[in-house]
Design brief:
- The chain is of the alpha/beta class.
- It has 2 domains: 152 residues, Aspartate Aminotransferase, domain 1 (Alpha-Beta Complex); 226 residues, Aspartate Aminotransferase, domain 2 (3-Layer(aba) Sandwich).
- Helices cover 41% and strands 15% of the residues.
- It is built from 15 helices and 15 strands.
- The strands form 4 sheets. The chain has a 7-stranded mixed beta sheet, with helices on both faces.
- Helix 3 packs antiparallel against helix 12, helix 5 packs parallel to helix 6 and helix 13 runs parallel beside helix 15.
- The chain is globular.
- Its cofactor is pyridoxal 5'-phosphate.
């Protein structure tokens, strides 16, 4: 199937479908009739091939235990990583889990003991912090550098931090959620070289790696580590859920090349009873999306999201107080990270936006304490984006008129 703009323009009513984005929104956002631009869950229909395959499968009428081993499906991951990201893995390097976070959780448990330190950069995805703290490990959270050139890593500071602390694991995000950075090979080389110097393993969450905007190239962390002879100390995590909007079908995976690392992670998987067995619909989904047609879907999707990003930037740039708004360069992901400076007295930003009918996550969700930010989900039909932007503008006009 060819995927055109019309496919992504479709608006689907998801209320009452047991989805978090709509049916759990009231747990976090006060108000009625909010446009939900919060959780990283798209408003686009899954690839048509997946929709048809699921429909056909449900006609059986019996949804029993799935296959007891997923090894027959590892080649879909291997093929996708080779074709999309140019990296070669062996099939026995691949392990399935509920989500991309399965590998992160297992890495924390396997590589750091209670009371030991785990490093992640701020702003950070909240679940990284949650897992570290809930398992009794200690988070060390240096900030990314944020200046007129965007976001970057202070490698000298990282080197000093690893020398000062006994860091047992670095949790890395590539592309980086929420700021949208796609790391260059030079940056990854510096990062891995420093980790190698201090003997710090890396778990690299690459669940957004299919969302790469024009002018940028995604480079797997493991591919650079392989050149440096450090890939046996890198765990890569990903999933089909983010790319193909099927988080309700649990189909995550993690990739490990080193045998010693595999043994450590396997011990933690046994502790958590983290079976590699996925649900039957998960295997079905893998077969349908990690294909040539799935690749066409991704390419068309990224083009559509990038157009939404340009639309958002243009609308915000036209506001009279545009100098007070900084939209980060969204090189990857489908999430715009926006800073607001020097506005008037206000409640937490999330609640201010709710007053104007739009649900947006603010900086508190990402442990960001150096400014006022919101994350804006751009994976939605243009008509939905337009409505959300109008409400966002109304909120900003109210905030800045009070300044």
């Amino acid at each position: 199937m060819e995927y055109t703009k019309d496919y992504f323009d479709q608006v689907t009513d998801r209320t009452g479908t047991h989805c978090a984005k709509y049916d759990s929104m009231g747990m976090f956002f006060p108000g009625d009739n909010l446009v939900p631009m919060w959780i990283a869950d798209m408003e686009f229909r899954c690839p048509q091939e997946l929709i048809e395959a699921v429909r056909k499968r449900t006609e059986c009428g019996i949804y029993g235990y799935p296959e007891l081993s997923g090894t027959a499906y590892h080649h879909f991951v291997v093929d996708w990583q080779r074709e999309r990201n140019g990296i070669e893995y062996a099939e026995d390097d691949v392990f399935f889990g509920e989500s991309a976070l399965t590998g992160v959780k297992l890495a924390i448990h396997a590589l750091a003991k209670e009371g030991e330190e785990v490093l992640m950069f701020l702003p950070t995805y909240g679940y990284f912090h949650k897992y570290v703290v809930n398992m009794g490990r200690v988070p060390v959270m240096p900030h990314l550098v944020h200046d007129e050139n965007g976001y970057s890593i202070d490698f000298d500071a990282l080197d000093a931090t690893l020398a000062e602390h006994d860091i047992k694991l670095l949790i890395f995000c590539s592309p980086f959620n929420p700021v949208g950075r796609v790391w260059t090979e030079e940056e990854l080389t510096k990062l891995i070289t420093i980790c190698q110097k201090h003997g710090v393993p890396i778990v690299s969450d690459e669940v957004h790696s299919d969302f790469i905007m024009p002018g940028h190239t995604f480079i797997p962390t493991a591919s650079v580590a392989r050149k440096l002879g450090y890939d046996q100390n890198v765990i890569t995590t990903s999933s089909i859920s983010k790319t193909f909007n099927c988080a309700g079908i649990n189909a995550g995976y993690y990739i490990i090349h080193g045998e010693e690392m595999k043994a450590k992670i396997a011990a933690s998987a046994t502790f958590f009873d983290a079976s590699e067995m996925l649900g039957g619909f998960s295997y079905l989904a893998l077969e349908q999306v990690y294909t040539e047609n799935g690749s066409k879907y991704v390419d068309a999707l990224c083009s559509y999201v990038y157009d939404n990003y340009r639309y958002l930037c243009d609308r915000l740039a036209a506001l009279p107080f545009a100098d007070e708004i900084v939209v980060s360069d969204m090189q990857g992901t489908y999430l715009a990270w926006i800073q607001f400076k020097n506005y008037g007295e206000a409640e937490r930003l999330t609640y201010e936006f709710c007053k104007h009918g739009v649900a947006l996550e603010d900086d508190e969700e990402f442990f960001e304490d150096e400014g006022h930010f919101i994350r804006f989900n751009l994976a939605a039909p243009r008509s939905v984006i337009e409505q959300a932007v109008e409400r966002t503008e109304a909120c900003l006009k109210a905030l800045y008129s009070a300044a």
